[in-house]
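Exercise 7. Given the components listed, write out the predicted structure of the assembled complex. Treat all entries as one system.
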Amino acid sequence: MAEENVSGVSEAEIAVHWQEEDYIYPPASFIRQANLTDEGIFERFSLDNFPECFKEYAELLDWDKYWETTLDTSNPPFWKWFVGGRLNACYNCLDRHLAADKNKSAIHFVPEPEDESTTHVTYQELFVRVNEFAALLRDFAGLKRGDRVTLHMPMVAELPITMLACARLGVIHSQVFSGFSGKSVADRVVDSESRVLITTDAYYRTGKLIDHKEKADIAVDEAAELGQTIDKVLVWQRYPGRHSSPTPMVEGRDFSVNELLPDYRGARVAPVSLPAEDPLFLMYTSGTTGKPKGCQHSIGGYLSYVAGTTRYIQDLHPEDVYWCMADIGWITGHSYIVYGPLVLGASSVVYEGLPTWPDAGRPWRIAEELDVNIFHTSPTAIRALRRSGPEEPLQYNHDFKHMTTVGEPIEPEVWRWYHRVVGKGKAVIVDTWWQTETGGFLCSTVPALGAMKPGSAGPALPGIHPVIYDEEANEIPAGSGRAGNICIRNPWPGAFQTIWRDPDRFVANYYARYCKDEKSTDWRDWPYMAGDGALQAEDGYYRILGRIDDVINVAGHRLGTKEIESAALTVGEIAEAAVVPVSDEVKGKVPDLYVSLQPGFEASDALQKTVSSAVVSEIGPIARPRKVLIVPDMPKTRSGKIMRRVLAALSNNEDVGDITTLANPEVVEAIRQME
Ligand code: WT7
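Answer.
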């Protein structure tokens, strides 16, 4: 059974209603230099040529052993790609570039404080640092192929170093977004059974050096309570040579990486040759239930897919300077800050801080200084930059050939600002629709081939064949403009392999609903359900409407309504909690949190604050509700179900519709008076 949307209201229902916009064509200057200008790609990647077409992506990599079977479908829907092949992801991102490019910058690390200079890490230097750290992980931490290790690191060069060192050994990394709380880290440590936690003492955010180490202490304690022991915490120093956190190191448990590294100076670790289907990493994301799910990505399929999409959709050439302003703690950063750019041997920017710090000119100064020519960010960041400095980009001489937007639908108005002001009217834009689960892009224009259409994610990528179903599993006719649930008909190499330790949920969440025959080993019977509402316009372009499940996309990041509700329920006074998505000018959607109290308690500002803080400490500041509304009672059906649809209408200033069938219609007016 597919998990149902239990809340009764989805983002897709609070959908976007934009008109179809006119096309904007890529400039000749872009087309002249583009990696992909051959229309034939769509034919080469048609279903007739599936799955062998994806060899073209896999051949962008160096394999220790060529694969025997391109796609093995014998155990649906656990598809296996490039079976029999062996390779190492770290080798592909580093070693193979040394002969020609050892002196090129692999990473430009830009600290948030503007008076600290940028660090340029060459491929050779990255190779040395990754090898030394891999030796430490192996010999000091005792990590080996197949072990999981949790990372809770901010945006510093040491994060890709850590990921690549893991990849070199076949250790599965699970990086948790640095803004998440210690409690969130603990949940992921427990689920992945990590014995080692890798973190940083401190990092800069909005001008302050934040104590990050304190979260590791919470994570270790909470994980222990839940039955998982962390025996080593490896702490990178933000300033090598000194501990920059007020939280002390725990003797015998916490170890300073920078103090240990001299023991491994000059160490070289041979990249472990691994089966293509070995996991490369886990990335936890939110779903319908309270528990985040660990999306497991493979080495061979994932790396092939990010190599192909980075080359063709991001149009990355080895000489480009590429800046994806996402956080490596999300899938965007894994695929398009670390693995994609490095596997193709380009230079990738890692920026520590907030885009609008100290002012809205910061990104354009960075771009100018490093001569960035490909820029990648989210609608939320674009809206924030536009709001705080609408003319600011025009003051700078940055020169983008290509820009990406990802994570949420972008309003045509905001798109046009991005195009005209940030891209100075000459950069191409790709609006890329995809997910943590999909490893890489699913929909986008091919930048030199397709016209741009503001507000549309574009057609499907070569080799991706979507279908939109209605609730009764009928196919909605292609190009009809009618909304439904978007699915992908065919497997593709970037797709996650399973949910860590929860294969049943993998099948139930993504494949069960539209499966045509559970006994079939034919992939045609197993469409992948993305969990988004979407429509396809006549020209084949898709518009994504938002989540159909109990997930809210806040600033391009997924939060489960259930996670926020359970955080609220940790406050003793709270009897019931209901979270609904609200449209927000900058962040796309934000959560409103409705709570009712146990008998004998009174509503107060202090209690509202307590509830809000509980959400922040359980999950992180990103989940902070816009409003906490303490209501006299929840609007309910006669069978006692909370009518979230009514609450969502109230929060979004929309018509609540017919409420006469509620058990307590009077409460709706009472709540409206509070808004
Ligand atoms: C959800 C996935 C993909 C990396 C960042 C988010 C929404 C993503 C777009 C887009 C409209 C988009 C979808 C999707 N989404 N890209 N271009 N236009 N909506 O990854 O956290 O797994 O979230 O983000 O709702 O399901 P994620």
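Discussion: The radius of gyration is 24 Å. Residues 285, 330-332, 406-409, 431-436, 457, 530-532, 544, 546-547, 553, 556-558 surround WT7 (CB under 6 Å).
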